[in-house]
Design a protein that fits this description.
The protein has 358 residues and is of the alpha/beta class. The protein is 38% helix and 12% strand. It has a seven-stranded parallel β-sheet with strand order 8-7-6-9-10-11-12, sandwiched between helices. The chain has a five-stranded parallel β-sheet with strand order 2-1-3-4-5. The C terminus is likely disordered. This is D-3-phosphoglycerate dehydrogenase.
Length: 358
């Protein structure tokens, strides 16, 4: 390789990523969101790789959106070959803009699936058993008649999963001991795969009508933005719970609020919001039948390390001329290979592409 690769990152989920990459022949440059913008642009404009800052992180700085991998950043970074998101979600990256520019887009789906799936199950148990509601009543001295806190069980209920990816699939496995009927809406899953995982594929309209728990685990894309709105909430059972560990814009927050206040649904477990972190006066946070966490479903000690190792390993693969294991825009590959050769003096292996696709 005639040029030493330069990788810009905002932070790692665990120091293990830095430990792995520091022994590789890769120049690591930290993007300090608190520094003057010109300092960050000086690093990015000569970068070959960018581990994209998360939307939650950039929300804390002025004009933080400039550090997301959108069209403006792509235009300013002519040497950029690849961008990666920290976790499974990749809404911080404009995939189409990157593809047009010959930039590979990757995520890190898989390593954090266990953490998020367990969190989603935790929401189900908390809502059904009214654990948080009971805790609030006990601490406030407003307990009253404890029979008013009567809950329900998961056993035999119907679980509706929107998105049968790594997280949704693991959630199905975790719920197996409860003997739940599991129905799934995912247009990218075929009947054979669904049968192998013990679930039934249905239309979204049927899923929201039948489910006792509607779990959203899909990524945020142009197809899923606003997927769950007034019509879907209106079709749900008044005893049903809505849970999301996906991204806020997948559901309509106003429609959700109306359903919760009007008794259209029983409650909600939310790890994501349209604005993150949500403001303290967010109407959803004022409701007793809502439990919420600040986008922490995937944050566990184990998941942070696993994601960091997967992140570092993927960057090693990229800069040694291999095909990224979690490439989201495979159509970019021919142009990416040409740009990689022009910029770094090494042509990625076509054989590696065939082997990985097979």
């Amino acid at each position: 390789m005639s040029v030493r690769p330069r990788l810009v990152y905002e932070r790692w989920t665990d120091p293990a990523a830095g430990d792995i990459l520091e022994v590789a022949d890769i120049e690591l440059v930290n993007l300090d969101l608190t520094a003057p913008p010109e300092q960050g642009w000086a690093a990015l404009e000569t970068a070959h790789g960018y581990q994209v800052a998360t939307r939650t992180d950039v929300a804390s700085v002025n004009d933080g959106a400039q550090w997301l991998a959108g069209p403006a950043l792509v235009r300013r970074c002519p040497q950029l070959l690849a961008v990666c998101s920290a976790g499974a979600g990749y809404d911080v990256i404009d995939v189409e803009a990157c593809t047009r520019a010959g930039i590979a887009v990757c995520n890190n789906s898989g390593p954090g699936a266990e953490a998020v799936a367990e969190h989603a199950l935790g929401f189900m148990l908390d809502l059904a058993k009214k654990i948080t509601v009971a805790d609030r009543a006990l601490r406030s001295g407003a307990l009253g008649d404890r029979l008013a806190l009567i809950g329900s069980q998961l056993l035999g209920k119907t679980l509706g999963v929107v998105g049968l990816g790594a997280i949704g699939s693991r959630l199905v496995e975790l719920c197996a001991p409860f003997g739940m009927e599991v129905i799934v809406f995912d247009p990218y899953v075929d009947e054979t795969t669904a049968s192998e995982r013990g679930v039934q594929l249905v239309r979204l309209a049927e899923l929201v009508e039948r489910s006792d728990f509607v779990q959203v685990t899909c990524p945020l894309t142009t197809e899923t933005q606003g997927l769950i709105g007034k019509a879907q909430f209106s079709a749900m059972k008044p005893t049903a719970f809505f849970i999301t560990t996906a991204r806020g814009p997948v559901h309509d927050e106003t429609a959700l609020y109306d359903a919760l206040v009007g008794g259209g649904i029983a409650g909600a477990g939310l790890d994501v919001f349209h604005e993150e972190p949500p403001r303290r006066d967010n109407p959803l946070l004022q409701l007793d039948n809502v439990i919420a966490t600040p986008h922490t479903a995937g944050i566990t000690v184990e998941a942070a390390r696993d994601i960091a190792v997967a992140t570092a390993t993927q960057w090693q693969t990229i800069f040694t001329g291999g095909m990224p294991p979690r490439l989201l825009n495979p159509d970019v590959w021919p142009r990416y290979c040409e740009r990689f050769h022009e910029i770094l003096g090494l042509r990625p292996s076509a054989t590696a592409v065939l082997e990985r696709r097979g």
